[in-house]
Amino acid sequence: MWRLPGARAALRVIRTALEKLSPAEAQSQTAAGAMERAVVRCVPSEPKLSLSFALADGSHKNMQRDQSEPLGRVLSRIATNALKGHAKAAAAKKSRKSRPNASGGAACSGPGPEPAVACEPVVKLYYREEAVAEDVLNVDAWQDGAVLQIGDVKYKVERNPPAFTELQLPRYIMAGFPVCPKLSLEFGDPASSLFRWFKEAKPGAAEPEVGVPSSLSSSSPSSSWTETEVEERVYTPSNADIGLRLKLHCTPGDGQRFGPSRELESVCVVEAGPGTCTFDHRHLYTKKVTEDALIRTVSYNILADTYAQTEFSRTVLYPYCAPYALELDYRQNLIQKELTGYNADVICLQEVDRAVFSDSLVPALEAFGLEGVFRIKQHEGLATFYRKSKFSLLSQHDISFYEALESDPLHKELLEKLVLYPSAQEKVLQRSSVLQVSVLQSTKDSSKRICVANTHLYWHPKGGYIRLIQMAVALAHIRHVSCDLYPGIPVIFCGDFNSTPSTGMYHFVINGSIPEDHEDWASNGEEERCNMSLTHFFKLKSACGEPAYTNYVGGFHGCLDYIFIDLNALEVEQVIPLPSHEEVTTHQALPSVSHPSDHIALVCDLKWK
Questions:
Q1: d(CA 221, CA 216)
Q2: What total of structural domains would you count in the chain?
Q3: 74: domain range?
Q4: Which helix (H) or strand (E) holds 139?
Q5: Residue scoring higher pLDDT (421 or 19)
Q6: Whether the predicted pLDDT of 441 surpasses 90
Q7: Among 78, 240, 567, 571, whose Cα sits 20 to 30 Å from the Cα of 592?
Q8: In this structure, are 477 and 432 located in the same domain?
Q9: Rounded distance, CA 55 to CA 87, Å?
Q10: Is 233 exposed, middle or buried (0-12, 13-18, 19+ CB in 10 A)?
Q11: Residues 486 and 531 in one domain
């Protein structure tokens, strides 16, 4: 029976081994050549650890063992597995009538022509050349740098090495558009990992892969690959790559060591791009990241896939748009290229599908130095990204308008006014709109903080009074964050407000008040009229002015999107010009093969006062 010592006793065994030998001596056990690798994953929050290694017969073992189990039980199990593997290998050789294996190992032969009978191999775990006692618990026994010996084969133990937990290439790839693999790492980070890109050799070519071991070559015998010169996380195919597949070889790292490499091929070939896009000329103004004193800010309704992929959208809203250009895989390429090309510090997005956020936007923008947060509404939501070299996320203060109005004492006075109009109150409380509020802190100057708000107000053309009340709730909440929680921090308020400059909502924001007799209080007729006067605390300005339109579809065009800024603390350094009317209408209206949304992104550089 195995003896189960206490944790202190187990740690003493390891500590004694640590004190006796230098780190280099653990590796001196090997003869010429590198040791095999035994990978151990041991996380405190999980009851089991995993052990992965390849036996001499070529079989791969993945073991799950209790962290509190004594080492001896694991070693005994490994010995049994090794014996079974040896027996299988011997049987296979016998069936092929090959000569008996005379290689070294813990095997003994009987007399006469009988095949060799394998004995259970010696299995030991060493740390700095001292055998680890078999009563030491797994959690303490399997240390990084230990050596596992199975017969004559030695394995270097790597505990919690960097590893990819997820790795995917996009399903649709176009020439001229960045390919941003989706990846998740454990015990590592993308910035310390290695990436190598390959492209399929053109038909008829038989060029070998440069510098890639044969063990890493494609599983498809009909494919041969040539290495590109790109060793970055993102690869942008050229026109020369059209019709070819791509392959990515990547090695996870943490800045000090590397984990097991992985390789994957694209399922599709590189397609031709659409040519000039509406944002290409805009990118000429945003080639570089701004200096620390500036904040390049983007607000963009990217058109949710849940709305684009409906029969109504294809036949009524956007009948002029080629069906393939409404497909998500196609539009994602354009969205990724457009957003990454702005080199923004803050990006506020509306109509973001949850899967688009996690599978497309995060991988693409993370590769270009941005981190993001997401707030779901119903079928889609809001996303705010910020440049990690400039800002860290201090706190989040998201709300649902109807929930805040009903339950937050902050809005008690507004609710008391609204209950006087039951029909209007019912409609307001039915709306699912949300407000995303993020407080960012400068990484260069911790005294500089900023409140970034992002919203998408109710859409209906007759919902003017609803948008007024939603905006009143939003501004009261933002004041609470920027005055009560973080006194005096400036505000950037982005969004699709579904309101043109002639509406009550815009008048309320810019002028600080709205009279009770404004026509928008009866925007949906007398039955839902709700006359009330509102005021707010801020002095706000539309940083990008009042463009002729930020939304351009077949039946409507107008300015619905804004970046409102706090005039007491911020000023506009430059506004990136919008696409020309000719560019917008090249394919009649938006979206199109050269523009992924029915809205146009607002982009401006802001400066601290």
A1: 12
A2: 3
A3: 35-81+122-160
A4: helix 138-141
A5: 421
A6: yes
A7: 240
A8: yes
A9: 12
A10: buried
A11: yes
- Catalytically annotated residue among 241, 345, 398, 496: 496
H-only helix segments in 451-557: 464-479, 504-511
- DSSP result, 345-391: SEEEEEEE-HHHIIIIIHHHHHHTTEEEEEEE-SS-EEEEEEETTTE
Q: What is the pTM of this model?
A: 0.80
Sheet hosting strand 262-265, strand order edge to edge:
225-227, 194-200, 246-251, 262-265
Percent share of the chain, pLDDT over 90: 82
Q: What gap in Å lies between CA 448 and CA 240, rounded to an integer?
A: 47
Model confidence pLDDT, tens digit, residues 412-436: 999 999 999 999 999 999 999 999 9
In a domain, 87, yes or no: no
- Pair (357, 489) in one structural domain: yes
- The reported pLDDT for the residue numbered 86 is 65
305 & 434 share domain: yes
The CATH number covering residue 513 comes to 3.60.10.10
Please report whether residue 562 resides in a domain. Answer: yes
Cβ atoms within 10 Å of 79's Cβ, excluding its own: 19
pLDDT of amino acid 82? 86
Q: Using alpha carbons, list the distances in angstroms from residue 309 to 93, 329, 331, 554.
A: 58, 12, 12, 17
Q: Are residues 145 and 173 in the same domain?
A: no
Q: Check if 353 is active-site.
A: no
304 belongs to a structural domain:
yes
- Report in angstroms the alpha-carbon separations of 198 from 177, 209, 215, 265, 516: 16, 8, 15, 9, 65
